[in-house]
Amino acid sequence: MIKLSRFLLLIATIMVSAIYLPKFYWMAFDVSPRVPRVMYSSLTREFMFIKTEFTNRIPQMKFLDSHGNSYTRDEFEKKLPLNYYRQLAATDQMPDSIGGVKIDLKEVRRNQVFIRIKPYGLNSPQIELFPLFESASGRVRIVLPEDYFRIQDRMEFINAYTNKIDREKSKLFTDSLRAAGFQFPALSIAGNPTTRKPFDEGYFVEDAQHQLFHIKMVKGKPFCRNTHVPTDLQIQGIKVLEHPLREFYGLIVTEKNKVFLLSYDNYKLIELPLPEYNRKNTILYFRGNLFYRVLILRKPNSLQAIVTDRQYRVMDRYRTSWKKRDERLAGVAANYIFPFTIKLSDISSNFINFYFHLSKATFIVCSIFFLLLTVVMYRVKKTGITRHWLDLLLVLVTGLYGFIAIFIFSRIDS
Amino acid sequence: MEEVIQCKNLTHYYGAKLVFENMNFTVKRGSIFGLLGKNGTGKTTTINILNGFLQPTGGECLIFGENTQALSPPTKAKIGFLMEGHIQYSFMNIFQIEKFYSAFYPDWKKEPYYELMKKLEISQKQKISKMSCGQRSQVALGLILAQDPELMILDDYSMGLDPGYRQLFIDYLSEYAKAERKTIFVTSHIIQDMERLIDDMVVLDYRSILLSMSPKKFMDSFKQYRFEFRNSPPELHKDEIIKNFDIIKNHATVYTFAARAEIENYLRSKQIQFVDLQEIPMSLESAFIGLTGKY
Amino acid sequence: MLGSLCFKEWLKIRWTYISMMVLSLLILGYIFLTLAHDLRFVNAPSFWTQVIFMGYNFYSIFTYFPLVAGVALAVAQFVPEIHSNRLKLTLHLPVKENTLLFQMITLGLFSLLLLYVVSLFLLLIVSSFFFPWQILSSIIFTTAPWYLSGIAAYFGLAMIIIEPSWIKRILYAAIIYGLVHCFYAARFYNQYQQSLPYFLLLIFLPYIGLFYTGIRFRKGVRSQ
Question: Would you kindly state where each structural domain of chain C is located, as residue ranges?
Answer without folding.
Answer: 2-218
